[in-house]
Here is the input.
Amino acid sequence: MENTIIKSNDYYIDSFYRPVKCIKNDEGDLTGESLVHHLLEGRLGCEDPGLINEWFDQEEFCEFISFEKALEMKQVWEDSGEKGVLIFHGFVPDEADDFIKNWRKKIN
Here is the structure.
């Protein structure tokens, strides 16, 4: 895959496999708006439903995707939930459970 620099208004999959719209890239430190924030309330700092939907990640752990792919991934989240998304990305069920429990990106 070509190494694409993620810019404002680009879409990417973050290290938690969420589709995110980039707000800012500060030399590899990404700030973005998750398209699935509403599905994650009560997890990952989303305890307050009024919380501003801003997510932070390192560009090296993210993957640039098209707007269409971002919408597809949003739909997978809505239809299959968190575990279904991980399986969609190649995890076996036990790996998906472990990832959800520990919140670490799969390392190949």
Q: What stands out?
A: The CA atoms of residues 79 and 85 lie 9 Å apart. The mean pLDDT is 81.
